[in-house]
Each structure stands twice: as C-alpha cells, then as structure tokens.
Amino acid sequence: MRKSVAVIGLVAAATAGLAAGCGSTGRGGAEAKAPGVGERSCGRVRPGVGAKPLAGARQGSVVALAKAGDKTIAYVADEDDGNLHTVDVATGKELGTTPLGGTPSQILVAADGRVVVALRDKAAIEVLEPEADPAQPLASRCTVPTPVEPVALATTPDDGTLLVTSGWGAALTAYDVANMGRTYEVPLPREPRSVVVSDDGKKAFVAHVVGSRMSVVDLAAKRVRPVDVGGIEEGGFRRSKISLFGGGGGEIERRACQGFALAKSTDFGGRVFAPQVLVDPGRAEERSEGYGSGGANPPEVASVAVVDEDTEQPLAESVNVKPDVRQLVGVARPRSSCLLPRAAAIDPGSRSLFVSCLGSDTVIEYDAAAADPQRAERRRFPVAAGPTGLAVDPEGRRLVVWSQFDRTLQIAPLGAKDATEAEAPALMRVGLSRKAQTAAMADLELGRRLFHASGDARISNDGRACASCHPDGRDDALTWATPEGPRQTPMLAGRLAKTAPYGWTGRGDSVEAHLSETFGRLGGAGLARREIDALIAFATTLRPPQVETIDRSNDALVQRGKSVFHSAQTGCGTCHREEGAWTDHTPHDVSSRADADVAATFDTPSLRFVGGTAPYFHDGRYATLRSLLLDADGKMGSTKHLSQEDLDALEAYMRSL
Amino acid sequence: MRRLGTCVAAASLAFVAGASAHAAGTPSFSSVPEARVPEMLHPKDAPDAIPAGERVEGVRVDGTMFKGAPTFTAVNAEGGRCLSVGAIPQGVPPSGSAGTSIRVGGVLPLRVERLVERKPGEAELEIIDAWLDGRTSSVRPATTTRVPLTVLARGPASYAVYGFRKGSELQVVIPSGNERIGYVDPRAQIGFTQCGHLRMGLDTTAKNGAMIVAAVHIRTTRTSSARSQARVFHPFVMAQGLAPDEVMRALQISASTSRTKREREPLLSVSVGWADDEEGVVGSNRAVNVDQGIEGPIPEPIDEE
Q1: Chain B interface includes A251 (CB < 8 A)
Q2: B26 touches chain A (CB under 8 A)
Q3: Distance between CA atoms of A459 and A522, rounded to whole angstroms?
Q4: What is the mean pLDDT of residues B39-50?
Q5: B180 touches chain A (CB under 8 A)
Q6: Which of A36, A152, A577, B201 has the fewest Cβ atoms surrounding its Cβ within 10 A?
Q7: What angle, 0 to 180 degrees and rounded to 10, lies between the N-to-C axes of helices A439-451 and A529-540?
Q8: Does ipTM come in above 0.95?
C-alpha cells in the first residue's frame, strides 16, 4: 500500500472530512478561536454598490446567483482551492476569484449584496462586500465565529436574521444580519446540514445526514422538534432463514439517511423538499450475506420527502417505498438511483425540483407537485463529476450546476415555464481556474471519485458507494446485518491512522485487507491496483474534525475526566490507550455478544471523535455515551463508583478525544 | 498561485436517452371538468332472462370454453374494451380487465368501457352498462354514457393521459395501446391491465396524498442515435409488425394528488416520461411463448441505414 499523503484542501472538501462526529444529542456551542475571527466590523461599507441577490433567494448554496446590473453572476464556493469564483452566467466567462480564509461550504447573498460564506474548517463565517465591478475580488469585511463546522446558511423572510447550521458543532446559530452579532443558538441532533426557513419566518427546517430525522426549530421559542422522515416499504421481501422461498412480504421500516439538501419555494404551498435515501440495514438479530438483509429489496432506495411546513409532517406518500413499476413491464436494466443527493433547487415556473446526485454525476428533474416526487421524474441529465451545487435563475430560465470534482460549472436552459417539450438542452460547460495540482492530489482526486462512485459494479452490486455508509467519510449511525452479526458503521475520517487492525473483529491487518472484505460483502467486482491505492490514500487522509477549533471552555472538567479515565479503578485507559490512538489493537470479550454474533471478542475501537459517533458498540446498542458508561460497568472498566460529577467529567473528556 | 487558465466551451451534453418527460401544464383540480359516471346496474333490477341472440358490440360470451365445467362461461371484450361483471369491489380499478369467467346462473350487470381517442389529446370514455345472461350467452345493453375526457398530461410520441373529476376523486385514464399496463395503485398494490386503458380514481381527500404509477410499452419511431444500438429482444413486448424505424419503448406515468394544510385545493401532478435510459426496445418479429423460458436478451445488430 502506498503511503498516504498529507496534502489536502481537496480531501477536506470533498468528504467534508473535517469533522468527525456528531453527537447523538446536540452539543452546540463549540466555537472557533482562530486568530482574526470576529475582530472587524461586518456592516456594509458602501451600501448599494455591487451585485444584489436574486429576488426571493434566501437559502445558501454552493453556487449562488446575483444580479450585477443587467448581468446575472454566479458565485461559486470552491472547496478545493478555498476560493470564491465569480462567473457571468450568460457568457460562461469567469470574471474573477476571491481568496477566502478557509474552506467554503455554502454561500449566501444577503439582501444588501454582502456575500456570506460559511468556512467549515475555520468554525466561522466570512462576510464579503462586492465591488462595483463584478470582476474585482470581493472585499473581506469580517469573520464571525460559529460552532464547529458551519455547513449551511439561510436568512429569514424579513432578511434580518442569518441562520447557520454547524455539522460537528450540531447547532443552529442565529445572527443579526446588519452587524452579524450572534443573537441565539439552538442545539441540534448530530450532523445537521441544509436549512430553510418557513414562509412566515417562524420556523427553520434542518436536514440531517443521519438519524432518520429532520429538525423543526421554533425560532421564537428556540425549541427543536424532530420529525421522522423515515419510510415504510409495504410488501418488501427479505431473505428469511426459515422460508424455503427466500422470505416473505411484510412491512419494512426504512431509515432516512443522506439528508444533505433541502429545497423550498414560497410558490409552493408550504412544501419542504428533502432528497434522501431510505435504508433497510437488515435485522440486527439475523445474519445476512452482506451488508443488509439481502433478499429482493434493495438496501438503499432514493427518496424525496415532502414535508408540510404547517403540520411539520412528511406526506406519507412521499416516504412510502413502492415497487419499481418499470420492472412490471419488463424494463430490466436498472436506472441509476440518486443515492448520494447533495443539492436541491426549485424552479417555480415549471414546478420542477432539481436534485444533484453525487456518484452518478446526474441532475434529476422531478415534478415538485407530486405526492412522491421520486416517482414523478421528468428527466435526468449527466453532468460533470461531483455535482455539489445547484441554483435556479427563474428570470433567465437557467439552471446552474457546480461540479466540484471536475471543477466545472454547467448552465442549462430551463425552457419556457409551460413548455411541454423537455428534450435535451445544450449545456454550457465552464471549467474554472484552479491552483496548481500535484501528482499526489491527482491520486486523491481519483480516490475521491471512487469513494463516491455509486452505481459502480466494481464497488457494489446494488449501487451503494463507500460514501453511502460513510457520508462525508464519517458514519451512517446505522447497525447493519452482516454474515458475522450486527455491525455498527465506524467513522473513517481521522480514525484510520494508527488504529489497525480494522473491522470490529480486528481481522483486517491493513486498510486494504479490510477493504477487500468490504467489497466482497457488497458484491463489488473489485478495483484495479492503482484505484485501490488511490481509494486508500483518500480514505486515510480524510480530514478529521478541526481539533484546534473545538471549544476549550470546559478544560477543567475535561482534565478531571482524564484523571477518571486513566485511573486504575475506572480502567478505561487500560484498553483505550492514549499512545495507541485510544486502542490497544487487541480483541476482548466484554460480554457484548449479540444473538447473531459468530464471535464474542471484538477489537478495541479507537475513541477518537467518539463523542460524535453515536450509537455505540459493535451492534449500536447504546444510543448515548452516558448509557454506555453506565451499562458497561463491570464488563468494560468500572463506573459504578463514580459520582455524577465524575461521570460528567468522564463524558466530557471522551467527547474531547 | 499558478493559474491554469479558464476554458469555456459550449457543448451539447445529451440527456440520458429516454429520460425526458412531460408534465408541465397539468391543470388544477378545480379546472378539471366534472363528469358523471353512473353506478353499475344493480342486480335487483335485473330481468329474469335474456333471450339468445342479443349482443353488445365488442363483447363475446362463450359458454363452450369450459367444457369440463359447463356451469362457467367466458366473457371477453374486444377492440381495447374493458369489462366488469357483477360489481366493482371497493379499491379495485373500474377498468383493466378484458375478460373474465362467470358462474352461469341469473342475469348479471355488465359494464363495458372503451377509451375512444379520436386523435391524441381528444378523447372520451364510452361506458355501456348492460345485462349479461350466461345461460343464453346474451348481452342486453341498458345505457350508454359518454364521458368527455380532459388531457392531464402529454408525453413523448403524442402520448396523452386523460382524466375527469368525479366528486372528490380525480379519475385518471391511462391508454395502453395494445400492451398491458403494469401499475402500482394508491395502496401500493401491483396490478396489470389487459384492455385498452386503465382508469383509476385518486382520492383527493386522502390525508397523505394518493398516487398511481404505471408503465407501458408504446410503439414509437426510433431516434437517429438509437439506430446503431443493438437490437434487444424482450419477452414482454410482442413487437410484431414493427417497421424498420420503429421501436417499442416503455413509458412511465405517474399521477398524484396531495394537499398541504395551506393549499386551497388538492395539487395535481401528472407526469409521463420514458421509463428506460435506452432508446427503445426492438421486439422480436416472431411469437414468443414466455412459458418456455427466456435465458436473456438476444442482441442482434441493426443495420445502419
């Protein structure tokens, strides 16, 4: 195996490997202490100068549109180079580039024309001001601290409040747009992503990558209500241990994952669209032939949940998994599913919902008026690799797609509002400028593409990509049925270095060995030598959470917890050795064998970033760290003797790892 | 920072072949004309008997089909007609079947439906309610109703989906041509049609929306880009008599109604698009006995023009 390289604007970006974890309950509050953050005024210096947002655009995106005079320009967040590109949408000409203070995740054009950029690796937002000439770099006005890993932006309908969701920081933070002063913060469940605001400005809807949920935040009461966006599959077939005919029909409860994107339009009667996948990880009490239940039902199906803004519930029709009608008339060749949805946008004129699909490098247009848009596909078209950003220009009737992996902006005409023809439009391709690339980065680029390759028979026989179970290089918070028993997905980002052996049983001496077993279970045909090297290089350099930006305000508590952790009486540090990346690289029997397990011993998992990777244990039996600490007493160290304060301290220490 | 330059190129990236669909222009629920469809005749009104010789066009009653079971008789509709005998059970599409068998006994209600497409986009539903006497293999017409249909969506190859409003229901009429329609109904149940159309009601008062998804093969002209593709034999498509430039290609149709709390009326959605990414399936020009088993596609090159 080739040694991994440590370069990485690219890696960071693509997989968002910046932060690992995500607490099963919200933590919030962890902030950047990066120098320079929050030291300058954020207000507009030259009001009225430069580009303005398109009317009604109040949701952040990787690509955001604005009007500069009679020109429509696109601001593109380039996470590989840490730049903001400005492109003339009509001509496709790149007008200019603005260097940013970190890796951008989303951009939002405020009502007064200021451009807010979420810097995911700096735990900050940067506020820029446009020049009169859109070709000139934007002027940086200030950076404002946020909880760790700001990932998405939105403004309220009155344009007065900016909302920022933070992935690792697991929080929704509100800022006064005028001066970017923080007004309040609401803790969220793990891995929040896109945010949209209700038409009345009273609620925010937040997507989550894991947990089968959407969060609805009451912005007045600062309260969060989780909404289950999982689905039901009627008559699904699972492989059965008993039936001679491979299982029977029944109801399968599917969990929602990959909630990266949301879309909403005031033209659509209170509908929030949430592209996602619905997952059947199989029954934990049964062994399977791979990852998942096997049988006829696919482990992952694409879905677009439609949530009623007022009732805060999904239309059941949108999350009910139905049989593939194409197969009923003998259309045997599978059509690639959107298993890695990353961006969404609405064209109110044609009532279309556009979703960009990473991995299959496709944009799919759905009928947004459908009870289940997933079953009302209008058309799809291939785009450059890595489509992470979408924007609709309703006035100019254009769709703008940003593909990060190929660093290409594509602009497609939307056609007339009431057009009945929907044939292939001519897409304008714009290759944006970039920093010089090294050979190592070329390898990482290949690894990144392979990591996200869905529908690739070399990886799996059911469309799944590495990023399906490891979104952003982390974990899906699911426990999968496997041939050896239930297995909770481990996080990869920042957890591969110095933690061999790999896999819950510790059978994989190297990442490559474990990868080989994983491909086998997924039914993948396998990759070529160079591709394996590239994939491993990418996986081992996934950027972990930005430890230096994690909140240090509770250092005293953490220090106390450290003492508890390493005390002989508690005994955590005996196996979770600090010098070994918090593992002793050895299997142990900690009385955790589940019914379907073939063995009783499990490799000591690393505790790096453990605070954000619930649930815990190989079978995901513990939903929270606290429940693990309490229940594992006597089986894995001792916690019975600890006071409440000691337990708090121990948990705080573990969350700091 | 070294700049590698900017390149701009206009390129026509082909959409995934066959993926285009047509759904814009779906009417609002209130704008769909309401039509009256009579209930089926009630058995209590049935005549005691119908003398032999009375017939309804397109309906064939064959009492000799079940030689081993003379108490049964077969009823078949022709020319794309759909039929129902007795009563239409709750939740079952009121159309879809072209044939059935009945136990010979008294006189039963019979309904025959036919989608009459004068030209694409202009259609009506002809509904004949009649009495069927299996003992004499006779059918006596009682009423004929003509329901004007409105276009809910147009698709490729001049395909149109029709409908009308019936109280709080949206009645969706999906033409099948000569191929069977496979569908998933609002209860997620799978079904197939054998006749010329599928008619199904969507309950617009359903709290969580109602949706039907269907697929059917239609005959269409091959696009130029498809002419170099390998011929694909398909056991489900009896594509006999196709012209050299024709293919059988699968369409996917979806129709739904849903309503959020603030919407004043149900939101309709009807989409029609190609169901496959290929440019079509060229059927075998020979009859196929599916029961004999099919091992897989048989590629045959198509000659370039």
Answers
A1: no
A2: yes
A3: 7
A4: 90
A5: yes
A6: A36
A7: 90
A8: no
Mean pLDDT in residue range B149-164: 92
3-state secondary structure of A147: strand
**Nearest one of B302, B267, B4 to A433, comparing CA atoms:** B4
Looking at the DSSP assignment, which residues form a beta bridge with residue B132?
B108, B139
Give the integer Cα–Cα distance in Å for A346 and A343.
11
> How many domains is chain A partitioned into structurally?
1
- What is d(CA A542, CA A539) in angstroms, rounded to the nearest whole number? 5
* Interchain CB contact of A378 with B (< 8 Å): yes
User: Structure tokens of A243?
Assistant: 């039936």
Whether the per-residue pLDDT at B209 is higher than 60: the answer is yes
Question: Considering only A292-301, A368-377, A400-409, which range has the smallest mean pLDDT?
Answer: A292-301
Phi first, then psi: give them for residue A575, nearest 5 degrees: -100, -40
User: CB of B287 within 8 Å of any CB in chain A?
Assistant: no
Identity of the residue numbered B6: T
**Mean predicted confidence (pLDDT) in A458-479:** 93
Residue A182 falls within a domain, yes or no?
Answer: no
Give yes or no for B254 touching A (CB within 8 A): yes
Q: What's the CATH code of the domain at A575? A: 1.10.760.10
From A330, A372, A380, residue closest to B211, measured CB to CB: A372
- Tokens 């121990």 appear where? A650
Mean pLDDT, residues A482-505:
88
Task: Report the C-alpha gap between A87 and A433 in whole angstroms.
Answer: 11
Interchain contact B217–A (C-beta under 8 A): yes
Q: Which residue's entry shows tokens 């199906």?
A: A301
Please list, in sequence order, all residues whose beta carbon lies within 8 angstroms of the beta carbon of residue B289, skipping any fewer than 6 positions away. Answer: none
B234's torsion region: left (phi>0), alpha (psi -120 to 50) or beta?
Answer: beta
Q: Cβ atoms within 10 A of the Cβ of B49, count? A: 13
- From residue A98, give the alpha-carbon distance in Å to each of A78, A126, B66, B97: 10, 12, 82, 65
Structure tokens at A401: 């797609």
- Return the SS3 of A396: coil
Q: Which residues pair with B102 in a beta bridge?
A: B73
Task: Give the least confident one: A60-64, A506-510, A532-536, A558-562.
Answer: A506-510
Task: Report which secondary-structure segment, H or E, holds A12.
Answer: helix A9-15
DSSP-derived 3-state class of residue A468? helix
Q: How high is the pLDDT of residue A417?
A: 46
Judge whether B296 is closer than 8 Å to chain A, CB to CB: no
What's the token pair of residue B91?
Answer: 């939740």
The residue range of the domain holding A647 is: 554-656
Q: What is the pLDDT of residue A486?
A: 92
Interval B251-299: pLDDT, tens: 999 999 999 999 989 999 999 988 876 554 443 333 333 333 333 333 3
Buried b (16+ CB within 10 A) or exposed e, B229-265: bebbbbbbbbbeebeeebbbbbbbbbbbbbbbeebee
Around Cβ A520, how many Cβ atoms within 10 Å?
12
pLDDT at residue A13 above 90?
A: no
Judge: B256–A351 Cβ closer than 8 Å, yes or no. Answer: no
Residues on chain A touching B6 (C-beta within 8 angstroms): 93-94, 430-433
Q: Which of A540-554, B53-67, B190-204, B267-281 has the lowest mean pLDDT?
A: A540-554
Residues of chain B neighbouring A328 (CB-CB closer than 8 A): 182-184, 190, 192, 215
Which residue among B1, B208, B254 sits closest to A435, beta carbon to beta carbon?
B1
In a domain, A415, yes or no: no
Q: Residue B180: its chain A contacts at CB < 8 A? A: 329
Total Cβ atoms within 10 A of residue B6: 17
Q: Identify which of A131, A79, A85, A130 has the alpha carbon closest to the alpha carbon of residue A106.
A: A79
Residue A317 included in any domain: no
Instruction: Name the amino acid, one letter, at B150.
Output: T
**pLDDT tens digits, one per residue of A500-509:** 888 888 888 8
Does residue A588 sit within a domain?
A: yes
Chain A residues close to B96, C-beta within 8 Å: none
